[in-house]
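A favour, since you know our structure tokens better than I do. Just paste the record in under my message, thanks.
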Amino acid sequence: MINAGVITVSYIIATVLFILALGGLSNQETARRGNWYGIIGMAIALLATILGIVTQAYVELLVALLIGGTIGIIAAKRVQMTQMPELVAILHSLVGLAAVAVGFANFLDPGRLAHYSGVDLTIHDIETYIGILIGAVTFSGSVIAFGKLSGKISGNPMLLPGRHWMNLILLLVVIYFGYQFVVQSPTGTLDNPAGWVPLIIMTAVSLLFGIHMVMAIGGADMPVVVSMLNSYSGWAASATGFMLGNDLLIVTGALVGSSGAILSYIMCRAMNRKFLPSLPAVSAPRAVAPLRRPVSTRARSIRSNPRKQPSC
């Protein structure tokens, strides 16, 4: 075990390396160096967390690290560069699934009601609820995006009648059951936590919303979708950090979430789309007139006054 000061310094170093990684990835010439910054920062974060925070279940942790590392190495060697959007989409789904799993594990923690009470418990429950909500949307939406990018799902948008009203109803349902969850949670006991039903209903609604959100988008707009899902996964990780009280996870999630949102804004401008409609979902595809090659003034003058051919 290492002391809290070493953990804090390690987290600060990892955060700086993550920021340098984002800066390096913004340029082709420095992209390789940026990747190394990210790798070193993640290694420092993992070591500091394992040696300083984890106190039990080391065997399960090492098995999970070996399985995840092996899958990552195999995927990195087999996936072609043209398949990178698909890989990114499926990795985003894993981030969302992890946020959902951590949220439920945090809710089922026997010591939750002993550690939190009153306003602290309410804030903690809201953090748990939001983390599961964003994670579920990210998971289901990323799976659909992967299916569309890989050709397993049709790239045609599925535009249901009244889909905007459906999204509004789903949002109101999520808010209502969030209120019910916060109200019911303090009434539980250490062995029988309350609030199960609202939490499960919200998770199902969030999964449905993620599916509906991405299915309504055409395959040509999938790059923007993947970028927004990247942002969602970052905010899900940040919410998980609030749940666990982990400062590094909060900062890292905020970096990923904000950078993904900025990238989405840049892509929307490049594609001549509005950014705000793309926040909950990318706007439906619009018919685009075919581009015409601009005709110069010189070409027009030659066309209107053709030069006479020399006589023989």
Notes: The chain has two domains: 1-78, 81-284. The CA atoms of residues 6 and 48 lie 8 Å apart. The chain is about 70% helix and 0% strand.
